[in-house]
């Protein structure tokens, strides 16, 4: 919408570069072009504002396929007004000189024209197409047919409208039909998912079996090695016992030999000592063989005295002393008065 200001009964209009302004004064075109700015009087001015930028028109309408199924078509048409003079002559683009607002609804008229034209060509295509084909290939077919139909529509060039592009967003059936159509695919997907789950479980079971077999094989190998270890320990124990027995035998034999040698040495020493003692005794006896018996008695008494305990005092009676002296061959002592 143009920007209009007031100054002392005059009006000033300033438009955007994408708006084509046509100013008639008393039936004469005085200003014509986009992005204009000028002064005018509202009582004598007739203004038209035609947008010349590209505009998007979204549309949605229902259609019926060859198998009598309702579908919803969503499309977008991009158009522009290439001839503002023709558009202003065919449609009401006049604006209020005081406010700059359109007095009519020209863009709605253009939208109705484009929507009805596109809907007509879409219905013509889908009426000969089954639902399954329409859902698979209908978007391209409808887009091509609508673009061709809008390009061949004579009212559009006569109104100064050029169609820039046509886009068909989607063709969708009713919700119940769409759910029914999705069911086989969902079932197939579910079957594939179940098959994948079963395969994964089978692989898991196979792996668990392999793991169990590996564990069992490991246990068997461990038991076999433990058996070898027990056998080896028994062999080592027997060998150690045999070695210990042999060592004990050698030790006992050596001890016995040493004992025998000691016994023999002791016997020989005892014999030598006995012989020496016998010789010494013989020599002692031989030495005392020629000695007087009294001397021998004295020696015996001396030896006896040496072996007797200590005697501090001894009292001899005269009879004992007389007999002893008689044995020694000495005169009897005189009796004291």
TrEMBL record:
<protein>
    <submittedName>
        <fullName>SPFH domain-containing protein</fullName>
    </submittedName>
</protein>
<dbReference type="Pfam" id="PF01145">
    <property type="entry name" value="Band_7"/>
</dbReference>
<dbReference type="InterPro" id="IPR036013">
    <property type="entry name" value="Band_7/SPFH_dom_sf"/>
</dbReference>
<feature type="domain" description="Band 7">
    <location>
        <begin position="33"/>
        <end position="195"/>
    </location>
</feature>
<dbReference type="InterPro" id="IPR001107">
    <property type="entry name" value="Band_7"/>
</dbReference>
């Amino acid at each position: 919408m143009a920007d209009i200001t007031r100054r002392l009964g005059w009006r000033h209009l300033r438009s955007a570069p994408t708006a084509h302004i046509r100013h008639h004064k008393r039936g004469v075109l005085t200003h014509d072009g986009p992005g204009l700015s000028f002064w005018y009087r509202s009582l004598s001015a007739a203004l038209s504002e035609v947008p010349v930028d590209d505009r998007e028109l979204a549309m949605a309408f229902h259609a019926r396929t060859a198998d009598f199924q309702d579908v919803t078509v969503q499309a977008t048409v991009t158009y522009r007004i290439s001839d503002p003079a023709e558009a202003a002559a065919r449609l009401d683009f006049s604006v209020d000189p005081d406010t700059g607002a359109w007095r009519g609804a020209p863009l709605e008229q253009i939208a109705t024209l484009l929507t009805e034209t596109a809907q007509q060509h879409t219905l013509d295509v889908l009426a000969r197409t089954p639902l399954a084909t329409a859902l698979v290939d209908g978007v391209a077919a409808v887009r091509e047919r609508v673009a061709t139909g809008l390009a061949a529509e004579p009212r559009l060039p006569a109104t100064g409208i050029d169609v820039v592009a046509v886009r068909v967003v989607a063709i969708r059936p009713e919700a119940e039909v769409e759910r029914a159509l999705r069911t086989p695919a969902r079932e197939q997907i579910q079957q594939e998912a179940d098959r994948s789950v079963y395969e994964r479980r089978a692989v898991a079971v196979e792996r668990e079996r392999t793991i169990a077999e590996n564990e069992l094989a490991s246990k068997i190998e461990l038991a076999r090695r433990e058996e070898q270890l027990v056998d080896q320990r028994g062999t080592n124990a027997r060998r150690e016992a045999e070695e210990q027995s042999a060592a004990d035998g050698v030790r006992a034999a050596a001890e016995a030999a040493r004992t025998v040698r000691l016994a023999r040495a002791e016997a020989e020493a005892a014999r030598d000592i006995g012989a020496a003692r016998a010789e010494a005794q013989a020599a002692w006896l031989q030495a005392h063989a020629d000695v007087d018996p009294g001397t021998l008695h004295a020696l015996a008494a001396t030896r006896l005295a040496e072996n007797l305990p200590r005697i501090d005092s001894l009292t001899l009676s005269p009879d004992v002393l007389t007999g002893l002296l008689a044995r020694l061959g000495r005169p009897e002592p005189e009796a004291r008065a």
